[in-house]
TrEMBL record:
Keyword DNA repair: no
Spans traversing the lipid bilayer: 7-24, 36-60, 72-93, 99-116, 128-145, 199-216
Organism encoding this protein: Sphingobacterium athyrii
Protein name, as recorded: CPBP family intramembrane metalloprotease
Superkingdom in the source lineage: Bacteria
GO MF annotation, one: endopeptidase activity
Keywords in alphabetical order: Hydrolase, Membrane, Metalloprotease, Protease, Transmembrane, Transmembrane helix
Annotated ranges, domain CAAX prenyl protease 2/Lysostaphin resistance protein A-like: 101-192
Gene Ontology biological process terms from the UniProt entry: CAAX-box protein maturation; proteolysis
UniProt keyword annotation of Protease present: yes
Length: 227
């Protein structure tokens, strides 16, 4: 039986996500918070609130979880959160004498809040569509959610990044089922908004380690299935 799209859930989710984004980014709602890290995290809370609401209202069972299909919760946490926090903090300490663990942690938490909505809910709902349509439609909604409507070359480049991210993060979601994993891949762009000689190698190391781990995991699962 062909899966049907729950349009009511999608509209409800997106309205909540957009409204939250507007109030956290376009008003003074967060001005009373002193911590810049907390402010940053809260700007991404809309998708998480929207997804949680539709899960409850429409009785939708989440497909992704924090642990995903890993046997132990410690594995995705160590690989996708502890590792980038330690690596980026170490490089920053050696080069700048600072340990930005709070900044890195806030980026990961922000990514998690977004991914609860985008990959945890919307990507799953759009699976009733062809993969290309899923990616493009999700990317458009994701782009508009950022409330940047000047359509400059920078914004066009950002949209292209979102399309590539929707494809790549979707693959990670399907492979791991883990919100921890998808939040880490989501955070790569926020970790390194401006590429330079320092951030480039860090990005390369993270991508290499994560790609190899996913490849090994895929081969192990195929081997186990054939036994």
């Amino acid at each position: 039986m062909k899966r049907k799209i729950n349009f009511g859930a999608i509209v409800t989710y997106y309205i909540i996500a957009i409204v939250c984004r507007y109030f956290t980014n376009k008003t003074e709602l967060l001005s009373s918070f002193e911590s810049p890290y907390l402010k940053s995290i809260l700007t991404g809370v809309g998708p998480a609130i929207g997804a949680t609401a539709v899960f409850l209202i429409f009785n939708i069972k989440p497909v992704l979880s924090l642990k995903g299909n890993y046997k132990n919760m410690l594995i995705p946490i160590t690989l996708y959160w502890v590792f980038p926090i330690a690596l980026i903090s170490m490089v920053s300490y050696v080069t700048l004498g600072k340990i930005p663990y709070l900044a890195v942690s806030s980026v990961l938490i922000y990514g998690l809040l977004e991914e609860i909505g985008w990959r945890g809910f919307l990507y799953q709902e759009f699976k009733a569509l062809k993969p290309l349509y899923n990616i493009l439609l999700l990317s458009v909604l994701w782009f508009l959610w950022h409330l940047n409507f000047d359509f400059t070359p920078i914004q066009i480049s950002f949209f292209v990044i979102l399309v590539l991210g929707s494809w790549g993060i979707g693959k990670v979601a399907d492979s791991t089922g883990s919100l921890i994993a998808v939040s880490a891949f989501h955070s790569l762009n926020n970790f390194f908004p401006n590429m330079n000689t320092k951030s480039g190698p860090i990005l390369g190391i993270l991508l290499a380690v994560w790609a190899v781990s996913l490849l090994i995991r895929k081969r192990m699962r195929i081997k186990a299935a054939n036994c």
